[in-house]
Predict the structure of CAF17 C-terminal domain-containing protein.
Amino acid sequence: MGIHILQVFQQQQKMCGRCLTRLLMIQLRNRQFLSNSAASPVYHLKSRGLIKVQGQDTVPFLQGLVTNDVSLLGSEVRSQYSMLLNVQGRVICDLMLYTASVVQGQESTVLMECDRTLMEQVISTLKKYKIRRKVSVEDICGSHRVLSSCDPAVSIVPGGEAITVTDPRVPAFGSRIIINNDSPIEIDISEDERGYHERRLQWGIPEGVHDLPPGSALPLEGNLVYMNGVSFSKGCYLGQELTARTHHTGVTRKRLMPVVFDRDPGSIEPGQDILNASTKSVGKFRSVIGQYGIGLMRVAEISGELTLANKSGETIYLNAVKPNWWPNEGV
């Protein structure tokens, strides 16, 4: 009798967890995770580094390396999302590009934001292709910080002593701010970036080495097109051939998508299979904070309840969600 009661209780717990997952899915589908109030937190993104590229050849130099059209940067376009690829067309890292000063034919300055753990590799790649270009490449992490706010129109530094832009990936997501460490700041800044990453995962915005493993991730599966990060008309760049061919000739069947767990899943092996009810693999786990994560999913096969096993061997239930900011063809 006691065993039967325990089994019923365990089943009720499992059902409650699944109901919570469905509730979280409804919230993700129907709610914009926005906060435009003055109380919106501003996060110091210590996981992101900054590189300054400066010189007369800055624009043509970067134009041949990154996926987006750097020639569009200027007073009207102050930031871009982009990626740096290897020669096989795989992702080295995701990038944010900022105009510090871009004047065609004159000395220009572009700031490149990337995962801080990849700074050395990115700088090495830039210097490898610099050849005789009139540019300098400098790590400026010691003098500048990357901040993020949920408010797309935030202002934190008096007198405009900062680069403040709407997030170029998904404008409704918020703002990016680049400030000098010596700049006076009008509001408090959180040094704990967990809140930023949890919200980013809720939105399904990939960022950094966990979501985009260097040397293996494909840019189109990382939603590069959806996040305004590539030009298919600017001409050649490093790794361009595979990206352009895939875009023009095929359908992107797998994409990084937000996933919602029925509870905190604990530790999960990167690349762990995500299974459907028939135990067929329909995706690969990438990253998680709390109950929100990102997985590389087969878009046509995400319906219904999914499972994966954590490092303790427990079966964890989850669902994949199509973000509101995807275009209609991203179904």
